[in-house]
Design goal:
It is built from 15 helices and no strands. The chain has one domain. The protein is mainly α and 348 residues long.
Length: 348
């Protein structure tokens, strides 16, 4: 049976928005963040289309098996790109857990279960990860519907006004940041033969969920959206079920952990393939070292985490553009080589 690998795109496109991602959108566009998301989604569709067209239809190891300079360059760039993605995802996870769940527990300990399951116990085949993603997809959508419904008593639609109160330059900048954050993780699936229509379907579903989350935050918090470092979590604290069941924000926020888990799992699997190792121990050790760096220098250091959140969209955007260009050049080289070999084999 053909697996629906496109479902991984849903989680990847959401994985960089917890905390710093959504806070950055509100920082530059305030209450107009949802408008920037709509514009950013249009830009993101173009990027997803380019990534889909750059799909190499075979494993990266297969096309990079010859150790020439260009192949080594692509492999090295891809490894660094994945390592940086892992660093950002672990930063997001560690700062979130430190801020709201386990402030007295070292991030090395609190994040270790995620790293262990996503790397050391990771499957050897991405198809098995797809089956897990299919289950988590249903749970994620259910949680989004649930928490939106539970927040309706707090809605004040006047908080959306006035519309277009943000300067056009800031709105465009936010749209670009959103487009980069929502599409950059897609690149790790570039050798998985996922069609554009499939990627687009789950990308749009993912973007719809983020729009719903951001609009809900804006309707509830209004001008206060910039006060909270994690507005998507802080707003959930206002939920009161049947007016006597409270503090359920930890449960309904589980969807963000699904995104981080799938992203870590996919990145770990691709890192393992690019390093050309058979055991999960090597990726686990590498990710563990990254987690140690995050724990020591970022998770409990507000200034360092803010500095990272400010620059990482730019770094990801540049790195993604460079990698796409390199892969497109590689595809052209391969295509010319195939045509040349075909002509050579033709009888005279």
């Amino acid at each position: 049976m053909k697996t629906n690998k496109g479902i991984l795109s849903y989680f990847l496109s959401r994985s960089l928005f917890l905390g710093g991602g959504i806070s950055t959108l509100f920082l530059y566009s305030s209450k107009d963040a949802y408008i920037a998301i709509i514009l950013g989604t249009i830009l993101g569709i173009g990027i997803v289309y380019i990534i889909s067209k750059a799909n190499i239809n075979t494993s990266l190891n297969e096309i990079l098996k010859k150790n020439n300079f260009f192949n080594i360059l692509i492999r090295l760039c891809f490894i660094l790109y994945i390592l940086f993605l892992i660093f950002i995802v672990l930063t997001i996870l560690a700062t979130f857990l430190y801020s709201y769940f386990l402030p007295f527990t070292p991030s090395l300990i609190s994040c270790l279960p995620f790293v262990f399951i996503a790397t050391f116990l990771n499957t050897k085949n991405i198809n098995k990860l797809v089956y897990v993603a299919q289950i988590l997809f249903v749970l994620s959508i259910t949680l989004i519907v649930l928490k939106t419904a539970l927040l309706t008593n707090e809605f004040d639609f006047s908080n959306l006004l006035p519309i277009f109160s943000t300067h056009a330059t800031s709105l465009f900048k936010t749209s670009l940041i959103f487009a980069v954050l929502s599409t950059s993780p897609f690149l790790v699936l570039i050798d998985e033969k996922i069609e554009f229509k499939q990627n687009l379907k789950y990308y749009l579903i993912s973007m719809l969920t983020i729009v719903i989350v951001v609009i809900s935050i804006t309707i509830v918090l209004g001008e206060m959206v910039n006060i909270y470092s994690y507005p998507e979590y802080s707003v959930l604290r206002k939920i009161s079920l049947f007016k006597f069941i409270e503090n359920i924000e930890n449960f309904v926020s589980a969807g963000w952990f699904f995104d981080i888990f799938i992203c870590l799992s996919v990145c770990s699997l691709k890192l393992k393939q690019l390093l050309n190792v058979k055991r999960n121990l090597i990726p686990f050790i590498i990710v563990f070292v990254i987690l140690w760096l995050v724990s020591e220098f970022v998770a409990n250091n507000f200034l360092n985490s803010i500095a990272i959140y400010k620059v990482f969209p730019l770094i990801l955007g540049i790195a993604m553009a460079v990698l796409i260009i390199l892969i497109l050049i590689k595809k052209i080289i391969l295509k010319k080589s195939i045509i040349s070999n075909a002509k050579y084999r033709l009888p005279e």
